[in-house]
Write a structure and sequence with these properties.
The chain is of the alpha/beta class and 477 residues long. The chain has a single domain (11-471), classed as Alpha-Beta Barrel (TIM Barrel). Helix content is 39%, strand content 13%. The strands form 3 sheets. The chain has an 8-stranded parallel beta barrel, surrounded by 4 helices. The termini are close together. The protein binds 6-O-phosphono-beta-D-galactopyranose. 6-O-phosphono-beta-D-galactopyranose (BGP) is lined by residues 17, 20, 181-182, 240, 312, 376, 380, 423, 430-433, 438. It comes from Saccharibacillus endophyticus. Keywords: Glycosidase, Hydrolase. This is 6-phospho-beta-glucosidase.
C-alpha cells in the first residue's frame, strides 16, 4: 500500500530488448549483431568481457538470441497481454543490424524498418506508448571486423546515420527515446556494451575510454538529431544505476565508494551536463590515458545534453578497502561488490535492496535536476509451474511491491519520475547468463535453457497483481 497515488500520466509499463526477445536473428534481412555470438554460461561471461574466440557463430554451439522468445513473430499476442495488464508504455530497442545489416549500407533495409513500423502501430493501437532505445548491446558484427567497433571514430558517423534514419521514420509514432542502454556497462562487459575485442598486450583502459568518448559524442549527435527531427519528442541517457555503499565509516571506504560511483556517473555527467568532469580528466592524466578528441567534440557535447535520465536499478553495491572483506564478493555483480550483511540475495547473487531505489533516485535527482525514468527493475528467479500450470511467484510480487513503494517515496521526496518500465514483463533471455531459467516475467514462456519448449505464453500470479497496481495508480500494492 502506498498512502498516495502516482501521477495520472505516470508511464507504467515494461521493458524488453530486441536481442533478448525478438529472435529471427537473420530474418527480414537482419545482419549479425555481437549478441548473436554469445552462448550461455561461463563462456558467455568471458566473451562479454572481450575474449572473443570467433566473429562467426561456432557450429554446434547454442546461441539463445537466435530464437529468443520469437517476439519477432508473436509481438501481437504479447502486446495484447501487456494491454490487458493496462500498460501505458513498453520500452523496446531497435536492432541496429535490422536497419543497417552491416552498419554501413548506403540505404537502410526496408524490411527491418517495416517491422518496427508494425510493432509501434500495434502498440499505439493498444494505447501503449513506445519508449525506444537506439542501442541495447547490439553492434553489427561487420563493424567489429572492419573497424574494431567503437574504438574507431568511424562508428560515430555510422551511428548518427542510423539514429537519423529511425528518428525520421518514426518521428510521428515515438515520443520517448534513449541512446545507449546502460552506457557504463562498456567498462565492465566491453564486448557486450561496445563490441570491443581485446588481444594480448592491448592497453585495455585506453581502448575502453576512447570507445566511451566515441559513444558519448554519438549519443550527443543522436540527441541533436532528435531535437531537430522530432522536436516534440524527448531523448534520454541510460545508466546501470545502484549506489556504492561504503562497507564501514572508515573514510577510506567512503572515498572508495565515491570513486566507484564516479566510474558510472562519469558517463551521465558528460551526457547530462555536457562536459568531462574534472575527476575524469584527472583519471586520464593519472593513468596516462590519451583520449583523442576532435575539434568540435566539446561543443557537440555541450550543446546536446539529454532531456531525462533513464536508469536501471536492481540492487545497491557495497565496497571495502579491507582485503579480508574483499574475499567476500557477491557472485552476481559485474560492478565488483562485496556482500552486504544487511541484505539478502537472489539465487543469482543479486542483492535485494528496495531502500537503495529511493537512495539512488534521490542522488540522481540531486546531481542532475532532470526528470528520471526507471526503465528497468525486476527480480530474476527460477519459476516452478504447478501441476495445473499455475505459477505462484509471490517472491517476485514481494520484490516489485517493495521497489515500487520505494520509488513512490522518492516521488514524495520531490524527485520527478516519468515512469516505471519493469524489466522483462514477459520471460526473455537473461543478458548476463544467457539462461531462460532466470525469469522476470508476469507472463511465463515455455522455453528452457537449451532452447526446448513450445514458446507458449501463460499468466503468472504476478500478472493480475501488476494489473491492479496500474489500475489503482500504484495505491494498491
Ligand atoms: C541489464 C540489461 C538488460 C537485462 C537486465 C537483467 O543489465 O540492460 O538487458 O537483461 O540487466 O539482467 P539479466 O538478464 O542478466 O538478469
Amino acid at each position: 500500500m502506498t498512502n498516495y497515488a502516482f501521477p495520472k500520466d505516470f508511464l507504467w509499463g515494461g521493458a524488453i530488448a530486441a536481442n533478448q526477445a525478438e529472435g529471427a536473428y537473420l530474418e527480414g534481412g537482419k545482419g549479425l549483431s555481437v549478441v548473436d555470438l554469445l552462448p550461455t554460461g561461463d563462456k558467455r561471461r568471458a566473451i562479454m568481457k572481450g575474449d572473443v574466440p570467433s566473429l562467426t557463430p561456432i557450429e554446434g554451439e547454442f546461441y539463445p538470441s537466435h530464437e529468443a522468445i520469437d517476439f519477432y513473430h508473436r509481438y501481437k499476442e504479447d502486446i495484447a497481454l501487456f494491454a490487458e495488464m493496462g500498460f501505458k508504455s513498453l520500452r523496446v530497442s531497435i536492432a541496429w543490424a535490422r536497419i543497417f545489416p552491416t552498419g554501413e549500407e548506403a540505404t537502410p533495409n526496408e524490411e527491418g524498418l517495416q517491422f518496427y513500423d508494425n510493432l509501434f502501430d500495434e502498440l499505439i493501437k493498444n494505447g501503449i506508448e513506445p519508449v525506444v532505445t537506439l542501442a541495447h548491446f547490439d553492434v553489427p558484427v561487420h563493424l567489429v571486423e572492419k573497424y574494431g567497433s567503437w574504438r574507431h571514430r568511424k562508428l560515430v558517423g555510422l551511428f548518427e546515420t542510423y539514429a537519423k534514419t529511425v528518428l525520421e521514420r518514426y518521428k510521428n509514432k515515438v515520443k520517448y527515446w534513449m541512446t545507449f542502454n546502460e552506457i557504463n556497462m562498456l567498462l565492465h562487459l566491453p564486448f557486450l556494451g561496445a563490441g570491443l575485442v581485446f588481444k594480448k598486450g592491448d592497453n585495455v583502459e585506453q581502448i575502453k575510454y576512447q570507445a566511451a568518448h566515441h559513444q558519448l559524442v554519438a549519443s550527443a549527435l543522436a540527441v541533436k538529431a532528435c531535437h531537430e527531427i522530432a522536436p516534440d519528442a524527448i531523448i534520454g541517457c541510460m545508466l546501470a544505476a545502484g549506489s556504492f555503499y561504503p562497507f564501514t565509516c572508515n573514510p577510506e571506504d567512503v572515498y572508495q565508494g565515491m570513486e566507484k560511483d564516479r566510474e558510472s556517473y562519469f558517463f551521465i555527467d558528460v551526457q547530462s551536463r555536457g562536459e568531462y568532469p574534472g575527476y575524469a580528466k584527472r583519471f586520464f592524466r593519472d593513468h596516462n590515458l590519451d583520449i583523442v578528441m576532435e575539434d568540435g567534440d566539446a561543443e557537440i557535447l555541450k550543446n546536446n545534453t539529454v532531456d531525462y535520465i533513464g536508469f536501471s536499478y536492481y540492487s545497491s553495491r557495497t565496497t571495502s578497502t579491507d582485503p579480508e572483506i574483499n574475499k567476500n564478493m557477491t557472485s552476481g555483480n559485474v560492478f565488483g561488490s562485496v556482500a552486504n550483511p544487511y541484505l539478502a540475495k537472489s539465487e543469482w547473487g543479486w542483492t535485494v535492496d528496495p531502500l537503495g531505489m529511493r537512495i539512488t533516485a534521490n542522488q540522481l535527482h540531486d546531481r542532475y535536476q532532470k526528470p528520471l525514468f526507471v526503465v528497468e527493475n525486476g527480480f530474476g528467479a527460477h519459476d516452478e509451474p504447478q501441476e495445473d500450470g499455475s505459477i505462484n511467484d509471490d517472491y517476485r510480487i514481494d520484490y516489485l511491491k517493495r521497489h515500487i513503494a520505494a520509488m513512490g517515496e522518492a516521488i514524495q521526496d520531490g524527485v520527478n519520475i516519468l515512469g516505471y518500465t519493469c524489466w522483462g514483463p514477459i520471460d526473455i533471455v537473461s543478458a548476463s547468463s544467457g539462461e531462460m531459467r532466470k525469469r522476470y516475467g508476469y507472463i511465463y514462456v515455455d522455453r528452457d535453457n537449451a532452447g526446448e519448449g513450445t514458446l507458449e505464453r501463460s499468466k503468472k500470479k504476478s500478472f493480475n497483481w501488476y494489473k491492479t497496481v496500474i489500475a489503482s495508480d500504484g495505491t494498491d500494492l
